[in-house]
Write a structure and sequence with these properties.
The protein is mainly alpha-helical and 121 residues long. It is 84% helix and 0% strand.
Length: 121
Amino acid sequence: MSNTQKMEWALRIGVAGEFLGHGLLGLQGKADWIKWIMQLTHVSNPTAHTLLLIVGAADILVALIVLIKPINWVLLWAVFWGFWTALVRPLVGVGWLDFIERFANWGAPLALYYFYQINKK
């Protein structure tokens, strides 16, 4: 395996791991996230729980696509979603340091997207 292939797989595994982990936490109904959804959208607890289940399933789907066959628009979605979910922390009062700590959540899919743009065949 070439160094380029190793770099690609390191990025793919990193992005997939992040989205798989978040997806599984979403399916488990992480209490803080339900509270944040309610705070930002003003929906009821059952609705927030349903939304979190949908988001969790979508995150797992992103992880699988990145591992099996990355698609550019899915990577760009991952960039947007990773940035948004990091930004949620200061928006709900957790703090800006928690946003900064999560730069890899959107930086890794962005790096993978640009990796594919540079290495187009």
